[in-house]
Amino acid sequence: PRGPPPMPPTPAEGEEVTIMPQPVIILEGDFLAVGAQEAKALVPFDAAFDRGGLVAVEPADRPHYIRSLAELVAPGGRVVFVAVEHDAFKDGRLGPPYEVTEQQLRSLCAGTFDVRPLSREDRLEKDAAMRARGVTR
Question: Whole-model pTM?
Answer without folding.
Answer: 0.77
